[in-house]
Amino acid sequence: MITVTLVQTDGATRTLQNIKPGTTLMVAARDAGVAGILGDCGGGCACATCHVYVDPAWQTRVGPPDAIEDATLDMASDVRKPESRLSCQIILAEPLNGLTVHVAPMT
């Protein structure tokens, strides 16, 4: 089982535990009621309402966005950073156990 920590925009930290591998970060966060993770498109990489900033220590393991995710992140260009990812595109697996991300502010 996977554990992840999300830092909400108000600074509150939410640690989610016992997440089943294969679950997307968006589903885990949305189901736990993490503020700022809406997932309006249901995880289809078509909005940007699940935008997060991957902690620098985790960027290599999480990897960069693909071309479709990169284009979708452009919708949040005013708050986009090099560490931006859509949480719907981060599939949780054992190598990401302990992952820390910061919820991006809504545009």
Describe the protein in words.
The protein has three helices and five strands. By secondary structure, the protein is an alpha+beta fold. The chain has one domain (2-103): Roll (Ubiquitin-like (UB roll)). The protein has a five-stranded mixed beta sheet with strand order 2-1-5-3-4. The longest helix is centred in the N-terminal third of the chain and has 7 residues, at 25-31. The mean pLDDT is 95.
Share of residues in strands: 15-25%
Number of strands: 5
Count of the domains: 1
Largest β-sheet summary = 5 strands, mixed
Mind telling me the CATH class?
Answer: Alpha Beta
Distance between the amino and carboxyl termini: 33 Å
Mean pLDDT: 95
Which residue ranges are poorly predicted, with pLDDT under 50 across at least 5 consecutive positions?
none
Corresponding CATH superfamily: Beta-grasp domain
Can you tell me the overall shape? globular
What radius of gyration results from the CA coordinates? Answer: 12 Å
| CATH topology grouping | Ubiquitin-like (UB roll)
Q: Please give the share of residues in helix.
A: 10-25%
* Helix and strand composition category: alpha+beta
The CATH architecture is Roll
Would you list the SSEs in sequence order as H and E?
EEHEHHEE
SS field, number of helical segments? 3
Widest beta sheet: strand line-up: 2-1-5-3-4
